[in-house]
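TOPIC: backbone geometry
CONTENTS: sequence, structure tokens:
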Amino acid sequence: MDKKEGIKGVSHEELCLWCEGNNLPKFRVDQIEKWLYHSLVDSWDQMRNIPAGLRHILEQNFILNTLQLEKQEESQDQETTKFLWKLADGKKVETVLIRAPGRRTVCVSSQVGCPARCAFCASGKKGLLRNLEAAEIVEQVVNIERFLNKIGERVSHIVFMGMGEPFENYANLIKAIKQLNSPYGLHISQRRMTVSTVGIPEKIRQFAKEGLHVNLVLSLHAPSQELRKKIIPYARLYTIEELLQSMLYFAHCTKRDITYEYTLIKGINDKEEHAKELAVRIKNHPATVNLIPYN
């Protein structure tokens, strides 16, 4: 590895190669991963069955904690907890824990800021600042897992619906999904992961070919191209027709149903005529429409 990187972005295979290259026995990989993803340590010194010399080498080569907790807020109904993290470069990103009966869902950010600039969303007001590294994405979930572990609970679901457009950080998104799903990591089922996108047809088609079992959600929010462009500036790059065709392609390739998110904005996209137009446009799609009151 050419640079010091977050260890939670390093796959099992990459860690095996690193240990091999440093003449370390293979069982050290298993030890390191158990400390990271089972014991959920936040200090190299907590890896008690690893020699001090090796812990020093790990510290010299990898970053254990890429996120620093800046602020934590609990909602009044105690159904959500927001975590604000400070990154190594001083930028900040947010993760949300959502509680529901039988579920503990982590809403994960993939970018600092967002290029989409949707009219109803605050994340893109300052535009895109940078992509998150795979380790910074994975660590959001690991940190929430540690938070829940203290009360005997676990993360059950992951949604890539936080700050950023996941498909604009495609390589790190895919690496994070595989890392979180890995039996050497948190081993969270891909079927319990969901990626939400404002719609990049070529990336949707690429995602369909990854051989994953992850759910896909499209932030649609309008039944027509003209109205969608007013709500989502990104819509100017692609027609609604090619976007919906790419979603159908995903459904065909993966044999998975898809979801269309539709945020209801009073006087803009919430009229009966809009509902009828949407019904016609997505007729026979293997899809669910998730209606969201504007907050």
Observations:
- The mean pLDDT is 94.
- The two ends are 45 Å apart (CA to CA).
